[in-house]
Amino acid sequence: xxxxxxxxxxxxxxxxxxxxxxxxxxxxxxxxxxxxxxxxxxxxxxxxxxxxxxxxxxxxxxxxxxxxxxxxxxxxxxxxxxxxxxxxxxxxxxxxxxxxxxxxx
Length: 105
Known about the structure:
This is ABC transporter domain-containing protein. The chain is about 20% helix and about 40% strand. The chain is α+β, with helices and mostly antiparallel strands and about 100 residues long. The protein folds into 2 domains: about 1-65, no CATH class; about 65-105, no CATH class. The two termini are about 25 Å apart.
């Protein structure tokens, strides 16, 4: 479950967006964030992950959450970025996460 109330996201004193109330209580949903560059999508995802606290309001995430940074370059085992990302997604599904977040690096 993700519960959000009176959520307000700002970066460097610039208002990005706010959410008055949001409840996601079913882990069988596919949800996408769509917005312009710099609109706060990545910051919002990082807030859900608990790795960014630069917001105001209530945000509770009770899902078992994993995230993968999408990497479009070669990694240390010389697979392509796409192959690496695919392998990470497969590993995440095997860990049976309730919520999987993909972040562009």
